[in-house]
Design a protein that fits this description.
alpha/beta, 2 domains, eight-stranded mixed β-sheet, two-stranded antiparallel ribbon, elongated
């Protein structure tokens, strides 16, 4: 569905934890669509960042595009503070090193005057954030630690079997603190710890230890735990060796001032969501997110404050469905 609302009013209507991937290409505050004092602009961004955090599922993908790297750093810090760490910083090289004359042909940009004294600013930047399952900065969050069901199962079975974590470590012959990572989160011996799922070999060793006297502990099969673990992790459909510098030409033949090319959205949606997932774009402009999500078998929710771009998006979708 395409909505025609203020972005914050639109997001207020979206159900909590109902979105798998959010792509945001907000006004850049450089005079195109938006011009606010910097502090006011960041405060406004903070409002929609909190709303996106609310509507995303715990392992959802959070993408933001911007032209100003300094601003994007601030936005990235805001998102990370909510427990969704930055996975990637992507540089979108729009002209692949093309000369000014070639750029003019590709996208009708102005030719540079001979007296220019700086490099061409022909890149935009994207940040990709997701919950990587770390306990850090999540203790106070309502949704809690993303792998808590698995951690609680393993630690509960350990407690039922009557072993301390140090006993497990000693009985299995570990010299380090690996067993602590299976059962505990937070601080271990004064250091921050990240939870880890045991390997299948270690899980079988735990089974033998806990059931040494005929007990019935750790009855779940390892394949089940592995599937649960993968379902809780954030989606990343590995495309192979792909640099974080994306050389993708800009969109052409669009009446919108700042359109995003379909190839850019295809890479984002294919890699960080799955068929049937919900993709959200509250600043959808000419509707590229909706068009690409629809082609890739994703459900989608899009919004723009300008009615003409909502109508343009609907027409793009209608034309696509005719062929």
């Amino acid at each position: 569905m395409v909505y025609n609302l203020d972005a914050l009013d639109f997001l207020a209507q979206v159900e909590s934890e109902s979105v798998n991937l959010a792509f945001l290409d907000p006004p850049y505050n450089i005079g195109v669509f938006c011009r606010m004092p910097p502090d006011e602009y960041l405060a406004w961004c903070g409002e929609w960042i909190r709303e996106i955090d609310r509507v995303l599922v715990p392992n959802g993908a959070f993408w933001v595009c911007h032209k100003e790297p300094e601003t994007l750093v601030d936005l990235s810090r805001m998102i990370a503070a909510l427990g969704r760490g930055r996975v990637n910083w992507v540089t979108w090289d729009k002209y692949n090193g093309a000369s000014a004359g070639e750029q003019y042909v590709m996208n009708k940009t102005k030719l540079h005057p001979q007296g220019k004294r700086s490099f061409d600013q022909d890149a935009e930047y994207l940040i990709y954030h997701a919950d990587e399952g770390e306990w850090t900065a999540q203790c106070d969050r309502e949704r809690g630690f993303i792998f808590e069901p698995l951690r609680a199962y393993l630690d509960g079975e350990r407690r039922r079997a009557g072993f301390s974590i140090s006993e497990v470590r000693d009985r299995l012959g570990f010299s380090g603190n690996m067993p602590y990572h299976w059962f505990a989160v937070g601080l271990i011996h004064g250091k921050s710890s990240q939870w880890q799922l045991p390997t299948q070999e270690h899980y079988e060793a735990l089974r033998q230890l806990f059931n040494r006297d005929g007990g019935e502990y750790l009855k779940r099969e390892y394949d089940y735990l592995r599937r649960e673990y993968e379902s809780l992790r954030y989606t990343f459909n590995n495309p192979g060796k792909v640099s974080s510098v994306w050389q993708i030409p800009p969109a052409t033949n669009s009446p919108h001032k700042t359109p995003k090319p379909e190839r850019l959205l295809r890479r984002i949606i294919e890699t960080t969501s799955n068929p049937g997932d919900v993709v959200l774009d509250p600043f959808c402009g000419s509707g590229t997110t909706a068009v690409v999500a629809d082609r890739l078998g994703r459900r989608w929710l899009c919004n723009d404050i300008d009615e003409r771009w909502c109508n343009y998006t609907r027409e793009r979708l209608r034309q696509m469905q005719m062929f």
